[in-house]
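Batch manifest, entry 17 of 40.
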Amino acid sequence: MSCKPVTFRNVPPDTFKCMKKKLQDYGINVPSGNRGELSGKGVTADFEWDGKSILTITITEKPFIVSCDTAARKIKDFVKQCNGS
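Output type: C-alpha cells
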C-alpha cells in the first residue's frame, strides 16, 4: 500500500536539481527528467515536478518497519538541505 502523496511548494529548478543529486549521493536511483520512479534503500516512490515550483512525491513501497511519516520526513530533509531552510 502506498503512502499519501507529499507535495512541496516553492521548489525552484536549482532546489530540484540539488535534491536529485543528494538523493543519488545517498544511494537512491533517480531518473532524469521531471517525473519518474525513485528507488533504493528498500524504498520506491513516484515523483512529479511541474518544472517550476511544485513537487509531489508518493512513496509506493517501503520496508514494513518504516512508517509513511518516517519515510516522508526523510524526503523532506533532502528538500530542506537544498532549499536553504
